[in-house]
Amino acid sequence: MSELPPTYPLSQELRDLLIQKLGILGKENVVLQQSLREQKTQTAAQTEDLFLELLEVADALEALLDYLENNPNPSPEFIERLPRSIAAVNRKFLSVLGKRQLLPIELTSTEPDFNLCRVIDREERTDVPDQTITKIVRRGFRWGEKILRPTEVITAKVESNLDDHIN
């Protein structure tokens, strides 16, 4: 003898309400799928724009490299312009990043802010106070409020003289 699943009687009012709710869910599902398609299209367009801008940076670097490869003894004028040319490429690259809210971290103090900096080395110095930033090794970047990469720094280390403490 097989058991039949239990049946639950639904009033016409409850049945109509369920049908209405299912209709609303179906419409919301269609709207969400359309929104997702639009977001994917927008993301693809933004990614394409980013790649095109990065290709401009790559083209500028490639032009410099091609010139150096084809001119083993570059002119003094070229050598004189080279730092400005590289700086222009760097500005273009930073501009591409800036358009996407990826900005260099600007340090406002000579002492490291450990929310923004990572000390990667210390050097003995007597001309500056202990913990003073003596060199920025690698620039840090923030993306909106998030620190994407902290600034890597070297700080001063004042050597303590044990002889001074003993006497």
From TrEMBL:
Gene3D superfamilies: Head domain of nucleotide exchange factor GrpE (2.30.22.10). The keyword Chaperone applies. Pfam families: GrpE. Keywords: Chaperone. The keyword Electron transport does not apply. Transmembrane segments: none annotated. GO terms for molecular function: adenyl-nucleotide exchange factor activity; protein homodimerization activity; protein-folding chaperone binding. GO terms for biological process: protein folding. This is Nucleotide exchange factor GrpE. InterPro entries: GrpE, GrpE_head.
